[in-house]
Amino acid sequence: MCAQSTDKTIPSSSFSTKFNGYKDLMKLRLSSLVVLSAFFGYYIAGGKVPSLELFYLLMGGVLITGSSNGFNQIWEKNSDKLMERTKNRPLPTKALSSSEAFVFNVITALIGLSLLWSINFKSAVLGLIAMVLYVLVYTPLKKITPFAVFVGAIPGSIPPLLGYVAFKNDFDLISGILFLVQFFWQFPHFWALAWKLDDDYKKAGFRLLPSGEKDKKSAFQIMLYSAFLVPVSMLPWAAEITGCPQIQPNASWIEYVTCNWSMYFGVLISLVMYYPAVKLYFTLESKYASRLMFYSFVYLPLIFTIYCLDL
């Protein structure tokens, strides 16, 4: 008796199939979450909300991020067939052909870059750098070395920097701090995900945990980079972006706490995120990786919101 095929290919003729395929190619939900950081960067820089400039920033950011995700899926279409979490993407299921996906990604990238260019040249350059690093450097490195995560953290940290530069048209200490906050956040966030999906990733030959395995060495680095979030979260206060820079030395403790509330909240939520990383190191139980991953999704928008409320 012949074995039944498990290859779930989808007929590629219907409009709804194509539409959903292009939507999944861009990973719009993830793209929107990433671009939220660009909004915070724009607001912290002093940008007006709402504004046409902000609309161009967000739309350009979504299109650039979505196009990068799409090119990534073209590159990894054969690997995606091997993993449970990716086998139903539009290319493995043949909902879209590689040529359809390529043309769509080129068009969305060009529109996205044009929107960013209409804001200023530096914004377009940042968008292009993020795309090139993600597609042409990070993606092929994933099968070669765990160092790929460090490379991928660079384009992943550009959104708040992009939002800031979109309004200021310049780089300064504040833009660098926004970049660093998102840069260090990415390691516990992504490694917690990699810990959960390690078996699936190995089917495709991806090496994404720090040591390549779910062991004490990987757990230690996850814990270490989670700890880095505590001092990093204080940088906006140290640089006097938030808080009360003119507070008097003889101020009461109530005045001091009131003026520096965002720093305390930043440290508090960083410690909350650090806790499951510590538990993961001592137990190596995947449930703590799940908690760390969940906390990381909440952490980034929460800490940027705190900064925005204390400018």
Summarize the structure.
This protein is an all-alpha fold and 311 residues long. The protein has 15 helices and no strands.
Gyration radius (Cα, Å) is 21 Å
DSSP helix count? 15
- Tell how many strands the DSSP assignment holds: 0
What general outline do the C-alpha atoms trace? globular
* Order of helical and strand elements: HHHHHHHHHHHHHHH
- Segments where pLDDT lies below 50 for 5+ residues? 1-7
Tell me the strand percentage band.
under 5%
End-to-end separation in angstroms reads 70 Å
Largest sheet: none
Structural class call reads: mainly alpha
Average predicted confidence as pLDDT: 91
Percent in helix: over 70%
List the helices and strands and how they pair.
Blueprint lengths: L14 H12 L1 H18 L6 H24 L1 H4 L17 H22 L1 H21 L6 H9 L1 H11 L4 H24 L1 H6 L12 H18 L1 H4 L14 H7 L1 H23 L2 H24 L2
